[in-house]
Amino acid sequence: MRINNNMSAVITNNQLLGTESSLSDVMEKLSSGFNINHASDNPSGIAIAAKMQAQIDGLSQASTNGSDGISVLQTAEGALNEVTEMIQRMRELAVQAANGTNSDDEKSAIQKEINSLLDEIDRVADTTEFNSINLLNGSLDSRIYAEHCTRMQSSTRVPAGIYQLDIKSAATQGMATSSGAGNETFQQISNNDYLNVTTTTSISIPAMTGFKDFIDGTSWSIDKNGTETASGTGLGISGSISINGYGISLLQGSSGESVYGQLRDACEKGGAIITDPQYPLEIKSEKFGANANLKIEFSSVEFAKALGFDTADFTIGENGPVIEKVGEDAVVELYTEDQTAVPSLFGKQATVNYDGNHITVKDTKGFELSFYAEAGFDATTDSSATDKGRITFNVTDIGSMSLQVGANKGQSMDVRIAAVTTEFMYIDDVDVTKKGGPEDAMNHLATALNYVTAVRSQLGAYENRLDHTTKSLDATEENMTSAISRIEDTDMATTMVEYTKLNVLEQAGMSALAQANELPQLALQLLQ
To answer: What do you get for the CA distance between the two ends of the chain, in Å?
Structure first.
């Protein structure tokens, strides 16, 4: 029996300390609700839980990102709904303007409303924003870089890369020119048997330098039965001219200024372009390509000569001489991916569609690349030393909105929103006051409506995809939260069983320690 070292008390105390330590851990788990409060509790478990928690936090934010993306698309789609309504209204106005009961003044009033709606479409495209990000002006569409063309657009099925083509010959306009008659003199004779009067009109037509000077330099005289009754300068004889169906009358003796002004107004109403008055007269169709028709009708051959037109361009129609000219489509050569001389990604089955200078390249699987070619640019006008008429398109992935819809790098979704301006919809020049303008307006507005509908359909597809994406993210987050709970969270029932056991052991240990501390006192009985 020893009194210096009470081994029973030491052993009991050590057991009690272990019980207290375990009881402390169990109480920490019960109070915190976590099964892992320190790395030492479960070294591998805390590593797994940390990675899973990062994923859960990322999934939660990705779901929020997806919801924000849906809000962006809904904002854009709401604006496009109004654009659709405005296009519908303009088409209704075009149908109204096409009715023959409308005068020019009424058509001008209709055009004012159309112009206002066109301005509003551009305003909506320029100002529709989400968090200061413009949505409809094309800034969220893929960037395409090229020279000698504008209004470049590509479908979502056009991969990034280099695309090249040659414009062998540019689209042309229907064109009629006036060169004068080189001091030619001709006579117009009219007989009135009832009055027995013979009237002769003599016109001296100068060579054409500038149209205004040409008219002012024309001299004419009228003889009746051989006696001169009138003479002067200016337009040689009276007559009428129709440009693309819009007709005007011109009076004999009108000055070059007056004749040019009336022709200019007729060209504007008839959808044609006239040269400046200091140059020889040249009238061209506004349009380019195979649909660029120009039809000029004259009341008489003599009147056409008085305006300086050459009889070689005439055909005689039912109502008199007619000049009919039509433009030609461009000739474009594509470089395809199977050719090695010029790098280009156009497919071997790609085709080219023309609408004047609006050129569209289409291929399978929704491939579509469109642009507006620079007027007159082709292999014959290109000043470059090599590759004449070449247009190189650099299609990039830059520009689209990237939505982070995953917890990890690279888990993103690109959203592209095409420009919805009047220029990109090719309705910026809609004019119902021109001859045939209402019909052209109906065609262009129908195309624009299809364009906007296609953009809205794409936005709807994005919205549906994001809706499914956010639901998937939420479900994944829920399942991962359940998984991390099994690792991190305390099982309260099991832990309470452990707590009860340890609590009983602690009380038993305290009692045993008290008994062990009394054992050395037994040695005193030996000393009595």
So the answer is: 16
